[in-house]
Amino acid sequence: MMRSYPLWQACFAAEDLSGGTGDGTPSGSPPAGTPNPNDFFEGLSLSAEDREWSTSAGIKDAKSLFDFARDRHKEVGRRPFRRPADDASDEDKASYRSSLFKELGTPSAADGYELAPPAEMPENVPYDAALGDWFRAAAFKADLPTDTAKSLHDDFVNMRIGQGADSLKEAEAELVRITSEQTGKLETSYGAKHGTVEFDAKVEIGFRALKHFGGDALIKELVDVGDLIPDPEVDGKFVVLRAALLTTFTKMGEELASSGGLPEGIAVKATNPFADGKGLNLTEQSKIIQHDKAEAVRLIKAAGKQPNNWGL
User: Fold this and answer.
1) pTM of the predicted model, to two decimals?
2) Which of 12, 39, 179, 268 has a CA-to-CA distance to 21 between 20 and 30 Å?
3) DSSP, residue by residue, 237-266
4) Count of domains forming the chain
5) What is the DSSP-derived secondary structure letter of residue 118?
6) Angle formed by the axes of helices 146-190 and 243-258, nearest 10°
7) Which domain holds residue 201?
8) What angle do CA 47, 53, 59 make, to 5 degrees?
């Protein structure tokens, strides 16, 4: 009759439990029904989901199961609170809530959230401090932990930065379109191409007349409403975004010129006195350098020469 062995003996018994050789020598494989010593969960009715969880949790033997249970016990021990029953007093519920959110890292007041703009905040997207204060109050009302509140705040600010960059690109593209369109109208009205001395002379006459009749106050108002914008390349000059406005003042300036000269400044010439050829005029060069150095630099460069040759 076959002998019965405990599980630990089944793994190490000298006899062949299958009755194999009959001389105590183990056979090559255990008999059917013998427990598998490599499967810690042998005999337990575990679903595939439970087995998958135990594998992901690292539980493969008694030692790993013990370690897992010990670690979970320590975690529970760090939280000296339990969810109160539904019929618990408001005081108990408030105490639980306070303990819970303190454990999660919720500050005791809204100003406890340390929120700040990025170190390299773009100038075109100013940080709204009032919105930051609102965010702190909303986060505190929602009992958000500090790290969660900071993450949401930073993501929101970065989204605004992205929106600002997109808006800036769209605005720049629209400005280029309008400038090109209005410059084309000026070229048609003046009968000269942008960048030529003739074109620049007409523009200068128009701005002198504008300043003569309206002064700096009118120029500022035109900038405020968007008819003019400061030229980013030339200090004190403006880019025209309403061609009809400047052509009107140009005609007024030309009429003034025919009846006694232009308003403020030196006479405007339709030729470049710094350019080689019949237009070269040393006297006019001297006048322009004395009265308007920026204009002298522009004309010298337009003539293909270096301003430092004139000490500019």
Assistant:
1) 0.39
2) 39
3) -EEES-HHHHHHHHHHHHHHHHTT--SSSS
4) 1
5) -
6) 40
7) 192-310
8) 110
- pLDDT (tens digit per residue) in 265-300: 444 555 678 888 777 888 888 888 887 777 788 778
Which of the residues in the chain have pLDDT under 50? Answer: 1-2, 4-19, 21, 263, 265-267
Q: Which amino acid is located at 20 in the chain?
A: G
pLDDT tens, residue by residue, 220-245: 888 888 888 888 777 778 888 888 88
289 neighbors 296 (Cβ within 8 angstroms): yes
Examine residue 40 and state whether it is found in any structural domain, yes or no.
no
Amino acid (one-letter) located at 182: Q
CA geometry: angle 83, 85, 86, nearest 5 deg: 120
228 — phi, psi (to 5°)?
-130, 150
Q: Do residues 216 and 207 make contact, with C-beta atoms less than 8 angstroms apart?
A: no
Cβ-contact 259, 274 below 8 angstroms: no
Closest residue by Cα to residue 146 from 114, 103, 111, 109: 114
Residue 66 belongs to a domain: no
Q: Report the candidate in 156, 82, 149, 84 with the shortest Cα–Cα distance to residue 118.
A: 156
